Structures are given as structure tokens and as C-alpha cells.
Amino acid sequence: MIIMVAGMRGGSGRTTTAYGLAAAAALMGQTVRLILVDGVGIADGAGGGDWKSWPISIHTGHAEDVPGWLAARTAPDEVVIVDLPPGRHASLEHADVIVVPVHHRACMPRPSAGAETGPLRLLGVEHLITAGRPLVVVPCRVLPRERADELRAAGRDGGVYVAEAEIGETKALRMAITPYAVAWAALAPLHLPLWQEVAHQAEARTVR
Q1: Annotated domain spans of the chain
Q2: Would you say which domain of life the source belongs to (predicted)?
């Protein structure tokens, strides 16, 4: 299973989501390869905490390295999670599922008068549509209920799946992942409901 965590804006919780999905997948007994493209910030602390006791291998590099990493997989059932920087990437075509975290400061900007809009544009995913690849939009950080409901309505209108699981900016999350270390055992249960939704969407694609 190949999961691409992507977005068109920075600061949406993309890297935190990638770490969380990796931790949750490992908790469920999966072997995980976490690829941090142009990784900065908390990537520096990825090897800290209880990392060595988890079945997670961590790689850092550039976007052009992604196809080579995917080709180098030694186990067909390995879960590969790629944290992509903001923007469009050709490597999205390799994804079984594309995960797009959003938060209240970035999601669904109010359109200006006369602006042409649609649900995909409002969700910020119009440039991430790749044929046959399901999208999972994840409400992250502190998302007011009104905005979360609006997000899900736009998802229904645009045919995009918006996860029921929400990743809140909680004290537990802040303590689980810092610039110095990742507490994988604490991070995993926080993202387990999201992992289950993402895995279901990826598996649904493979049986179509």
C-alpha cells in the first residue's frame, strides 16, 4: 500500500499526519517505510524516542528520489507513506490513496466576489486529482464545527471522501511529536481511527 500525504499549502499538519499514519500502521502489525521528501523540522527528531522498537524505516531525500524508493521495496505488503511538500508532484500517480490534511486557517477560503469556485477548489484539492486514486481529506488542527461541516458538504458535492476522524491540536499530540523526538507509542493511538479509514479507501480501490 502506497499512501501519499500531500497538499497545496504548508502548515496544514501534513508531516504530523504522515508520522501518525506510520505509527498507527506499525501498531497494527504493518512494516512501514516512511519517506520524508525535503523533510525539515520534526524530521530531525524522527529517530529519537522509541523509534528503534517499531517496524518503521525512515528515509529522507528529494521528490525525484521517490520512484526509486518505491521500486526498491523488498516486501510487497510493506506500507509506504510519503510526506510530500506543498505543490504538484508526478509521484502522485504511484499512490494507492492520497491523504490531504487541512486546517481551519487554510481550508476552504471564502471566495471573493465574482470568483469562480467549485467544491474541489474550495477543498484545495483541485490540483491533486489523479485518475483512479482516491483522495482522503483530513480535518486537522483546531477546526471549528461549522467549518468541518462545510468541509464535508463540499466533499460530498465534489465526490471527495472527507474522513470522519479529526486530528485535533491536543496536548497529547504536542507531547507525542516534537522537534527532538517522536513518541511513537503515544502517537499511534491518536491516528488509529484515521489509519483505518485510509486503509479502507486504499483497499476499496484495489478490489474495483
Answers
A1: 2-206
A2: Bacteria
Cα distances from 136 to residues 88, 128, 185, 189, in angstroms, run: 16, 11, 24, 19
How many C-beta neighbours within 10 Å does residue 135 have?
Answer: 23
Q: Which three cell numbers stand for residue 200?
A: 479502507
Give, rounded to a whole angstrom, the gap between the first and last alpha carbons of the chain.
15
pTM exceeding 0.90: no
DSSP β-bridge partners for residue 5: 83, 99
- Residues 44-89 pLDDT 10s: 445 555 556 788 888 888 888 888 888 877 677 889 999 988 777 7
C-alpha to C-alpha distance for 135 and 159, rounded to whole angstroms: 9
For 157, the grid coordinates are 458535492
- DSSP assigned state of 200: H
